[in-house]
Amino acid sequence: MAEINLVEAVNLALAHELARDEAVVLLGEDIGANGGVFRATVGLQQRFGAGRVVDTPLAETAIVGTAIGMAAMGLRPVAEIQFSGFLYPAIDHLINHAARLRNRTRGRLTCPLVVRTPCGGGIHAPEHHSESPEAMLAHTPGLRVVMPSSPARAYGLLLAAIRDPDPVMFLEPTRMYRLFRQEVADDGEALPLDVCFTLRGGTDLTLVSWGAMLHETQAAADALATEGISAEVIDVATLKPLDLPTILESVARTGRCVIVHEAARTAGLGAEIAAGLAEEGLYSLLAPVQRVTGYDTVMPLSRLETQYLPSVERIVAAARKTLEAS
Amino acid sequence: MSTVARFQIDHVRFLDPQGEALGPLPDFARDPAQLVPMYRAMYLTRTFDAKAIALQRTGKLGTFASALGQEAIGVGVASAMRAEDALFPSYREHAAQLVRGVRIEESLRYWGGDERGSDFAQARHDFPNCVPIGTQVCHAAGAAYAFKLRGEARAAVCFLGDGGSSKGDFYEGLNFAAVWKAPLLIVVSNNQWAISVPRSAQSATATLAQKAIAAGVDGVQVDGNDLVAVHHVAREALAKARAGGRPTLIEAVTYRLGDHTTADDASRYRDPAVVQEQWSFEPLTRLRNHLVGLGAWGPDKEEALARECTETVSAAVEAYLNTPPPTTAAMFEHLFATLPAALVAQRDEALRFAPRKAGGQPGGDHG
């Protein structure tokens, strides 16, 4: 079993599904001979042909729009949006069509579509390349929103997303693409969607996060452990629909919760999770829920981006605040 | 300096506004067995159209978009399609939809505020009405790609209006289909009006058909009120598409004789005298005169057809008005293949607070 990084795990999952199901097609900009700007599709066009690994013209609206037509007519398209900030031209098709084709036709037509896009900052990328659009997408009824945080979960969740009969937004944290390697078996075993993954058990507080922020969140848990504080860490993984029961169950044991996300704070998914805790878990809370998030500012260019991204220090400080509250 | 590209746009018309042949006709245009069903479909469309407006005016239907004056386009194109092709309509294409087998009561359910209206009993692969302008061009291009990839002799056909041809989705879908050599037919029903904005303010191009040229697609303009012309170019375009050829764009020039929708009052922005003038070019009279000239039609048949269409529409209206209301749970049932656990509580809440008589009245919940 090989040790691979997250972007290689994406490649492995795509190759597995292309080989398994001839209805699977990939489309996007520069995904063919070039293998994708992040190399997620390296070698796939050579192996599966230009008919199934399609270099499209440069137009994101039509990448998603045509993928909807393909999906409705029996293909299993996996569309790549090259950079997160280029997703926005396709929002009309995602909200008005992909998310509601099944509902609009009472199940007659469906849209088994995956849209992959890198997301998040921290790699000194140019403007418009470091977006965190998950809350906007999660607000749309009919869309699933998934974000992996490790090579193994990227592989297993992407398999699940491609096999799912409905549209899935698969947001790949750019900063995680090559952050670490992990053994991943190409066994075709999908991981479940719609559930959180508890990455480490703990008794004193619950840290909830997703995507690249789990790197800092886990480091914060390590730092807290050196002080004898036991933090449970939850990877939300599927952001919509949200697996609130797993978070509630954890907080029922720990009594404290810190939610960490890179996206801007206002109306971010941290607010949704905090509201869920207020509605259904208030009496198990020993301290107010804390959020550590990106600021409500424009994502800065590279020289300031590390000041925007939640740091280990900010997470530890928020954790301390919950511990000092009672 | 040298010229590196030239283009020309042909205009196709076989019958003049009085239904007189302007020259040699294609074979089908002399064959009543092919023409009469198309005339009947146009007549049924117009009968349905008038009834739908009447239903809306009496509070029994929601907002409705009339196809008055544009019947030849939908019927002429859809009659050239095969069952296995797929239609990607705008919201003004019930002429095409009726030919495709969409039932009048289904269309009424849709306009009456019920998603079940888009669960067509026939035409199972056809897309539902597309309200966001021009987006269906991309969907149709993708469908055409799927047909081509699987080696199927099927075509995707999409309809949009003159206003839709200003959208980026139109250009992008057109361009993708061209690059892919996908079996796609794009029909621009140029009815001269995008709600209140006239064709002259919509685009500076001499024709809308020439927008195809920039994408490397064949573009042709037809008299959209001449059923023979529309059907002829659609047959040619679809034969080419099924044979693995390039996409085609047809600009069908017509005139929107009615308001944009029942929510619109076109007298606010256009001269009724001009509309009155346009009635002399409308498509039913033209085809009827041609059929009379062929000896295939007369007052008796016309009267019988009128009666038959009225009865057909009345029966459909009755079926529509007698449709059981949608269930409260239906909001949740088709959101995903399986209702996610996170939504179960919301569904239960909706059920708990549902009125005893759920689903409102046909045409909207008037309380």
From TrEMBL, chain A:
<keyword id="KW-0560">Oxidoreductase</keyword>
<feature type="domain" description="Transketolase-like pyrimidine-binding">
    <location>
        <begin position="4"/>
        <end position="179"/>
    </location>
</feature>
<protein>
    <submittedName>
        <fullName>Transketolase</fullName>
    </submittedName>
</protein>
<dbReference type="InterPro" id="IPR033248">
    <property type="entry name" value="Transketolase_C"/>
</dbReference>
<dbReference type="GO" id="GO:0016491">
    <property type="term" value="F:oxidoreductase activity"/>
</dbReference>
<dbReference type="InterPro" id="IPR005475">
    <property type="entry name" value="Transketolase-like_Pyr-bd"/>
</dbReference>
<dbReference type="InterPro" id="IPR029061">
    <property type="entry name" value="THDP-binding"/>
</dbReference>
<keyword id="KW-0786">Thiamine pyrophosphate</keyword>
<dbReference type="Pfam" id="PF02780">
    <property type="entry name" value="Transketolase_C"/>
</dbReference>
<dbReference type="InterPro" id="IPR009014">
    <property type="entry name" value="Transketo_C/PFOR_II"/>
</dbReference>
<dbReference type="Pfam" id="PF02779">
    <property type="entry name" value="Transket_pyr"/>
</dbReference>
